[in-house]
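Section 4.2 – Deliverable D4.2 (structural model, holo form)

The reporting period included a commitment to supply a predicted holo structure for the target in complex with EPZ. Inputs used:
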Amino acid sequence: MDRIRIVGGERLYGTIPISGAKNAALPLMIASLLTRETLTLKNVPRLADVNLLARILGNHGVDVTIAGKRTGQRHSDGQTFRLTAEEIVDTTAPYEMVARMRASFWVLAPLIARCGRAKVSLPGGCAIGTRPVDLHLTTLQQLGAEIELEGGYVLARAPRGLTGAKVELSKVSVGATHNALMAAVLARGESLIEGAAREPEVADLASCLIKMGARIEGVGTSALWVQGRETLYGAEHTVLPDRIETGTYAMAAAITGGEVLLEGARADLLEEALQTLRSTGVEIEERPTGLRVARNGGGLGPVSVETQPFPGFPTDLQAQLIALMCMANGTSQIRETIFENRFMHVQELARLGARIELKGDTALVTGVGAGGLRGAQVMATDLRASVSLIIAGLAAQGETMIGRVYHLDRGFERIEEKLSQCGAHIERLSA
Ligand code: EPZ
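Output (structure tokens):
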């Protein structure tokens, strides 16, 4: 099993290209199930989750091809995927596949919308919380699907197709909004999705669906109006840049006290997180090619933050912020409101010398100052938790060795390469 070795203490200087967003690429790939024609996706990141989803879609009958390198393309440019679901040969998503990646549960909506039936395994628990799927199921029921649960599977049927309706989401859910959108675009008549998630990845899916022929209004708001269509068509769409990768590298630069250009990053996708970073004393400047992030010499101030659905501070940057605040002058309060068990990184950060007290859903992080973090052996527990260990390792004295890095490969493209090009001492050790 691969491990990552970091020798901390180097400031980061240079340019880091920001990849396409994992959490946009996955639903966009799933949207290919909605049409017989080819969906071309550009700027797809090179990630384990993307490859796994390509295999899962292949099982339903989707042909997935990846274009080779073209003249003028750089090593860091995203991939171009062509996905064609001319015929859906299998409407079952088996446990072995869905259990490995929760987002694959989202095939439920396009399968039932297009084929009138689907059998999809329940995703089961996950390291960051219970993560139920009740909202996904009630959404589909509101659109006329009959749902049964049997042997750990969701059996969904709509023999005469789905019917447009008012869909009310009682809690903000990114996945349930993706599901509702993908079902409503092929339903008969109009739908109104109220309480929709406003995350940029939802808006990216909606823009792609519009290119495929869907009629959607209210994109980017919590009320999405959809006029269903009988057929959708092929289209070409570029995946938006990854706001979580952007925030992660901004915090990596901030903890080391360096200066980096996050190439291709868009400030409008993470205003609240950038504002939080600015409040700690980090300089952030929008440039035509991306975002410049610097902390030259100044100390870091503590923060009081709670995670919230977009446009609030994202839960997917909570672990990274805790790592950064280990170097702040004072005590920060970081409250997690989205997932009830998303503090697995705390005990690993403690192994590096972090002073973090957990009080229910709130982490109180007391900065340990320069030299306070010391390298150690630690273990990645989930995707964002593992990258928080990298951020802390970059600032820790001596060697940090991170195990179970397959979690990182799910969501961060070539992280050790991107960081070492900016001067970090980081390498992957393959067992
Ligand atoms: C998406 O997960 C992301 N995953 C997550 O990123 C992200 O943390 C999360 O949204 C919140 O922003 C992808 O996009 C692939 P939710 P999702 O439904 O859609 C509750 C990462 O690290 N809920 O918005 O599964 C749920 O338990 C991952 O990249 C219900 O109660 O999250 C949570 O408390 C981790 N019933 C809240 O809603 C439901 O039916 C928000 O979850 C569905 C969700």
